[in-house]
Amino acid sequence: xxxxxxxxxxxxxSLGRVGMLLGAIPGLIGVVMLIAARSAPxxxxxxxxxxxxxxxxxxxxxxxLRVEVQGATLTYRFFPFHGKPRIVDLRDVRAARAVTYRPIxxxxxxxxxxxxxxxAYNVSGDRGVELELRDGTLLLIGSQRPEELAAAIxxxxxxx
Length: 160
Hints:
Blueprint: E1 4-9, H1 14-39, H2 46-61, E2 64-70, E3 73-79, E4 86-89, E5 93-100, H3 103-107, E6 111-115, E7 118-122, E8 127-133, E9 138-142, H4 146-156
Parallel strand pairs: 7-9
Antiparallel strand pairs: 1-2, 2-3, 3-4, 5-8, 6-7, 8-9
């Protein structure tokens, strides 16, 4: 089977539009704080306030989830929170199932989440692949193409 690659962003969903709005708020606060700092100097410089505000805003605007299955390896990276991709050896996967889940009820929403069923990495929608690992850990990877992702994982597993 050909390698599976999928990159998803918050901007592709209505949640992304809310995130963009929330991301703009810290930027506006930074500008107001810069103006206030210039009129009443303090130890905190206006420049540092802008850097912090822009960093917070960017974290709402640019997150993406990239998932790849190549050979016997699944990698996923939730940027900017993962500096480098997380790697799952497919020999450690007992089962991979395409599922429909309830993001808010099951995991508390979208993003990097932990719920009663384990860790979830998702950016939009209510579809994904639930992995059951050999150690009993459950891991949900959100996907707009969950059947393809599950098939790629299964084909990369020994005997798959």
